[in-house]
C-alpha cells in the first residue's frame, strides 16, 4: 500500500531486475534534464484561495471533446510487459476504471487492438522508415476505435541512455514490439556496450521527418492530431498551423536531448503562443496530484503521467495508483480553494529558484 504516488518508485525498485529498472527510470546523457524536470516542478508555488465554500472539488475535464474523470492521461510507454506479464492490458483496464484515456505506444508489447478494446484510447505514432507500415498503423488505430493520433516528434534518433548502454540492455524473448513484430530482431540482440532497444529504433525510425510530413499525415486521417515533444513556442505555433488539435509540451521525460529545458518551464511560452487555438498538455517529471494542479495553473489543459504508473504496474497496484492520483488532485484543489478546473487555471503561481 502506498501513501503517495511517488512511493511506487521504491516499491518497484525492490522487485525489478536492475536493467529493467534502469530502462524505466533512466534518462539520456548525464541525466541533467531528468533532474531538471523535478527541480523545476518543485520550484513552482501556488497561492491558495480561502473561504471558497468548497467541500468536493469537481476534477472532471474535457480533453479533445471527451469528458474524463480528471485532467490526466496515461502516457505512451513502450514494452510494458517488462514490468508485468499483462503489461498494457492491465494498465489500460485500470485507466478505463479510473475514467482517463490510455495512450497506446507504437512500441506496445500487446497489439494495439487488444489494448484499445479495454479503454478509451489514443494511439501514439513514431515516424517509421517503412511508410506503408506507418500508414497501416494509422489505419489500424482508427479501425480499433482510437479517438486521437499522438505523433511523437522529438525522436529523430533515440537519446544516448547510458544506463542501457552499460547494461547492454536488450528485450527478453517474450517481450516484443507487438505492432512491429516483423522488424524487432535487433531489440533482442544483447551486445556489450550497446542498447539493443536503441539499435532497433535506429533501424526502424525515420530521422529526417519534416513539417511537410506532418501536414501530409494531417491530410490522411480524420483523427484529431496531437503533436508530442514540443518545447519551443515557435514549433507549437507551427504545429497548430499544420492542423494539430493539441500539443504536448514534453522533453520525453529527460530521455532525449540532455540539457533540454524542463517541460514545466517551457509550458507558459507555449500556452501564450497557441492561445485558444489548441489544447496544451504536459508531460515529464510528474509525480503527484499537486504537480498536475501546478501544470493546470500554468496553462495546461491536462497532464500525461508515465513512470509512476509503470512502477505501480511492477507491483500490481495500477488501480490503487490511479485512485491515489485522483485523491491527490482533489486534495490539492481543495487546499487551493478550487471548486473546479477553471478555478485552478485562475490560481496565482510563483517560483522559488533556490530549490532548483
UniProtKB/TrEMBL annotation:
Q: Which Pfam families match?
A: FMN_dh
Ranges for domain FMN hydroxy acid dehydrogenase? 1-354
The record, for CDD domains, names: alpha_hydroxyacid_oxid_FMN
Report the GO molecular function annotations. FMN binding; oxidoreductase activity, acting on CH-OH group of donors
| Active site positions | 252
Membrane spanning segments where?
none
Matching entries from SUPFAM superfamilies are given as:
FMN-linked oxidoreductases
Q: Which InterPro entries match?
A: Aldolase_TIM, Alpha-hydoxy_acid_DH_FMN, FMN-dep_DH, FMN_HAD, FMN_hydac_DH_AS
**What are the protein's UniProt keywords?**
Flavoprotein, FMN, Oxidoreductase
Cofactor(s) the record lists:
FMN
Record-annotated residues binding FMN?
Answer: 76-78, 105, 124, 152, 228, 250, 283-287, 306-307
Q: Which family does it belong to?
A: Belongs to the FMN-dependent alpha-hydroxy acid dehydrogenase family.
What the entry lists under PANTHER family is as follows:
2-HYDROXYACID OXIDASE 1 (PTHR10578:SF107), S -2-HYDROXY-ACID OXIDASE-RELATED (PTHR10578)
This protein is called 4-hydroxymandelate oxidase
- What organism is the protein native to? Kribbella steppae
Amino acid at each position: 500500500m502506498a501513501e503517495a504516488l511517488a512511493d511506487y518508485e521504491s516499491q518497484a525498485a525492490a522487485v525489478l531486475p536492475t536493467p529493467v529498472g534502469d530502462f524505466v527510470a533512466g534518462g539520456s546523457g548525464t541525466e541533467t534534464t531528468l533532474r531538471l524536470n523535478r527541480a523545476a516542478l518543485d520550484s513552482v508555488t501556488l497561492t491558495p484561495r480561502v473561504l471558497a465554500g468548497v467541500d468536493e472539488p469537481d476534477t472532471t475535464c474535457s480533453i479533445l471533446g471527451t469528458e474524463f474523470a480528471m485532467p490526466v492521461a496515461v502516457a505512451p510507454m513502450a514494452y510494458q510487459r517488462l514490468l508485468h506479464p499483462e503489461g498494457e492490458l492491465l494498465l489500460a483496464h485500470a485507466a478505463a476504471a479510473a475514467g482517463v484515456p490510455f495512450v497506446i505506444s507504437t512500441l506496445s508489447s500487446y497489439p494495439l487492438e487488444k489494448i484499445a478494446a479495454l479503454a478509451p484510447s489514443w494511439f501514439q505514432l513514431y515516424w517509421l522508415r517503412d511508410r506503408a507500415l506507418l500508414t497501416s498503423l494509422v489505419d489500424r488505430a482508427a479501425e480499433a476505435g482510437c479517438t486521437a493520433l499522438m505523433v511523437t516528434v522529438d525522436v529523430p534518433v533515440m537519446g544516448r541512455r547510458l544506463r542501457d548502454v552499460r547494461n547492454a540492455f536488450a528485450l527478453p524473448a517474450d517481450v516484443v514490439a507487438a505492432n512491429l513484430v516483423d522488424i524487432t530482431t535487433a531489440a533482442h540482440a544483447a551486445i556489450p556496450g550497446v542498447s539493443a532497444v536503441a539499435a532497433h529504433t535506429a533501424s526502424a525510425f525515420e530521422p529526417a521527418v519534416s513539417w511537410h510530413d506532418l501536414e501530409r499525415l494531417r491530410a490522411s486521417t480524420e483523427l484529431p492530431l496531437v503533436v508530442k515533444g514540443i518545447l519551443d513556442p515557435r514549433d507549437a505555433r507551427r504545429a497548430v498551423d499544420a492542423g494539430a488539435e493539441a500539443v504536448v509540451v514534453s522533453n520525453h521525460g529527460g530521455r532525449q536531448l540532455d540539457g533540454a529545458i524542463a517541460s514545466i518551464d517551457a509550458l507558459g511560452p507555449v500556452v501564450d503562443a497557441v492561445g485558444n487555438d489548441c489544447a496544451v498538455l504536459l508531460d515529464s517529471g510528474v509525480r503527484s496530484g499537486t504537480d498536475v494542479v501546478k501544470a493546470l495553473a500554468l496553462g495546461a489543459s491536462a497532464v500525461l503521467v508515465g513512470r509512476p504508473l509503470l512502477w505501480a504496474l511492477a507491483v500490481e497496484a495500477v488501480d490503487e495508483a490511479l485512485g491515489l492520483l485522483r485523491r491527490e488532485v482533489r486534495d490539492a484543489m481543495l487546499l487551493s480553494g478550487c471548486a473546479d478546473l477553471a478555478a485552478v487555471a485562475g490560481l496565482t503561481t510563483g517560483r522559488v529558484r533556490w530549490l532548483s
